[in-house]
Amino acid sequence: MAQQFDVVVIGSGPAGYIAAIKSAQLGQKTACIEKWVDKEGKTSLGGTCLNVGCIPSKALLESSEKYHEAMASLGDHGISIKDVKIDVKAMMARKDKIVKNLTGGIAGLFKANGVTSIEGTGKLLENKQVEVTKHDGSIEVLDAKNVIIATGSVPVEIPPIPMHEDIIVDSTGALEFTEVPKRLGVIGAGVIGLELGSVWARLGSDVVVIEAQDKFLPTADQAIAKAAQKIFEKQGLDIRLGCRVTGSEVKGKQVVVTYQDSESDKQETFDKLIVCVGRRPVTDGCLGEGCGVTLDERRFIFVDDQCRTTVPGVYAIGDVVRGPMLAHKGMEEGVMVAEIIAGHETAQMNYETIPNVIYTHPEIAWVGKTEEQLKAEGVDYKVGKMPFAAVGRAMAANDTTGMVKILADKETDRILGMHVFGLSASEIVAQGVISMEFMASAEDLQLTCFAHPTLSEAVHDAALAVDNMALHIANPKKRS
After folding, report:
1. Which residue spans adopt a coiled-coil conformation according to this UniProt entry (predicted)?
2. How confident is the model at residue 157, as a pLDDT?
3. Which residues of the chain have pLDDT under 50?
């Protein structure tokens, strides 16, 4: 007889493992299926994010930034270090240890919360049955009252640049280099491309970033994007916009890339090439014939605002559905769906307050609308900016690049967006998220006491600047 569960979750990435834990906490008999196998041949929980995405990439970003700081700026603090070297193998070993700790941590959380962890590949069948193909080829079928599909996403491959052993790699392969490439090509100037390009540029690679779009970071506020592009180019990233890749050829231990810009066809030769032009949902193989779940034109699972699919009792969350492919977005969807299954029908999440972060240095983070979006929507708004160059804590940290920018409705004063470029932007933007969740006004932030000296004081002055009342920078003179 098939095992029976109240909830079966397919996939243990951030969306899946949170959905499983929350479901179990709400009293549901829960199972979570995971197919990922680590280097040792053991099932590893956590999906792309923990195994080959968010976590390992941030570990390398942190290591490379410390190396760069030791090489370039510790002297400003009066600290002299001679013969600074990078041990790539040790850096990678540290990264792998962090991954192992966190994936093992999820296994511990499953055990603590009573989630049944099942190894294998899950496929939804008719009548909410889930087929599990084990690693040894054996098959088990589970009966579920509710199914949550959280199968995630994988890197997009493009025909002109097929993967090639360790020379042409995707974002996963870029986390496994055993030495610093002398010359590195990055296809795609999005979040992943900029982060991975930054890692290896800090460690000494000559990095060229090739991007098809004419505008740098088109989804970010363009004042922030333009400032960031200038800084990244100063840091050594050769960013080439409006360039369409047409082909590649591996020659020995190098790869020749051909591309077209507005002028002509061009070629570049690299020791390594990272292809990061986006990700696509994993829907192939997880939906059995006749299961009833429908896909949209881009092969995302079609869901409503509460992540219900077209089949009652079947939900889909995370990268496999519409919306930004962000771990924290998937996590919150997991909580929402678990609560709905437990009977809280009104559970929902606010898709307008999902923060976006690019973990370069300085970091870029934002929540809510950009100026460009507000202009396109015809919204009358006001702007407040505070540069970190005027913030004492940033000066003490020797890291004054960037600013905080706040957008507020001109009539209601409600905060519509916060954009941060600078040190700890990923932490500072949370203040904008909380403010917008509580429908705060710029005045609410103006009347809030911020600790001094902190980087967050930039938020306070940016809010004051919305009404031309900044205290630590000169306000524009009012026209008579």
Report:
1. none
2. 95
3. 480
Same domain, 425 and 448: yes
Tell me the CB-side half-sphere exposure of residue 281, using CA atoms within 13 A.
25
Which residue, among 449, 389, 441, has the nearest Cα to 418 in the 3D structure?
Answer: 441
pLDDT value, residue 480: 45
The domain of 416 spans 362-466
Which residue among the candidates 135, 164, 452, 460 is catalytic per the annotation?
452
The verdict on 140 and 9 lying in the same domain is yes
Please check if 325 is assigned to a binding site: yes
Is residue 452 annotated as a catalytic residue, yes or no?
yes
Q: What is the CATH number of the domain that holds 444?
A: 3.30.390.30
Q: What number of other Cβ atoms are within 10 A of residue 41's Cβ?
A: 8
The annotation status of 234 as a binding-site residue, yes or no, is no
Structure confidence at residue 477 (pLDDT): 80
Whether residues 313 and 200 share a domain: the answer is no
The model's pLDDT over 177-228, given as tens digits with 9 standing for 90+, comes to 999 999 999 999 999 999 999 999 999 999 999 999 999 999 999 999 999 9
**278 marked as part of a ligand binding site:** yes
Token representation of residue 73: 């700026």
Strand boundaries in 27-182, DSSP class E: 30-34, 116-119, 121-124, 129-133, 139-149, 153-155, 168-169
Structure-token pair, residue 92? 């990678």
Q: Please report, as a single letter, which amino acid is at residue 104.
A: G
The answer to whether residue 162 sits within a structural domain is: no
- Specify if 160 maps to a domain: no
In a domain, 475, yes or no: no
Element (H, E) at 201: helix 191-202
Q: Do strands 206-210 and 183-187 pair parallel, antiparallel, or not at all (unpaired)?
A: parallel
